Prior knowledge:
35% helix, elongated, Rossmann fold, single chain, 325 residues, alpha/beta, 2 domains, six-stranded mixed β-sheet, disordered N terminus, three-stranded antiparallel β-sheet
Amino acid sequence: MAKLASLGQRLVALSVGRPAAVDTHAPLLDAEELAQLMHRIQAQQAAPYFRESQHRHAGDFRSVYLGSGLDFEEARPYQPGDDVRGMDWRTTARTARPHIKIYREEHQPALHVVIDRGPSMRFGTRTRLKVAQAARIAATLGFGAARANTCIGGTLWQPDAMTLPCRNGTAGAMQLAQAAIAPCPPLTDAFAAAMPLLHALLDRLDAQLPRGSNVVLISDFHALCEADMPALLRLASRHQVQAVQVLDVTEQALPNVGLIAFQDVASTTRCWVDTGRREVRAAYRAQASSSQAAQQALFRRIGVRLHCLLADADPHALLQEMRLP
């Protein structure tokens, strides 16, 4: 039963309820829902924004990196080893003691969102698919960051692995939202086989992104394994990395709906499960809880904060929880 519960986290139900007639080539979110997300973010951010920056090297957030900068911070007494080219001669003449000017370097914040659109994300039993929730999260984060004129980019984790160029403010947020809500055609065996490995994707991001970027990984992380951890650790050592795990409620507890058929999206293997048996549901719940705890331990070990969100939950609380610029 434990093996069955473990397998259940990667399965897609075939016979639960009546199949709905949907357009498989329609966007994951319609224009009205996307507009509601944008308006809600704007309503939450009522404070005015005063300054804008047009280049990556300048911005309105204090940088953690050393540099000369352009904004005057203070004049302090000269210390051995200071660069004499930064002497504040007026203060030196007024106080009869050598003083040096200190400047503050500022950087424009950068946000890069990775959206998992793989086979296991094409699953959902309440309200929406996990991939649709991932699109809502990405759009919410993008609109929330746009107000600070953040440079926003993204990557779609799928066979063609499209990477979006970094754009400032609203233009970057709209670019990310439009890519995130793009239609997800029906799965094929070729699609599952062509999914790029996670560690290869992370290594490419590490090489492409400016040092110190805010990176958000949105996935169910069912494909995460020990082989991916070195690449994730390297990425986290050079960037501010956070992870958002999107789960369906049935991946935490199996519902009692009688005998149902499941298909493994990776191997196309089918099996029948009697969800009416209490011991089956209990074993599934225990295995799901154990798997979730193990994943949290993996992320905690490398210093990456993991946020968990159900597919039918409201993503707006993540803005405050993640504390992105």
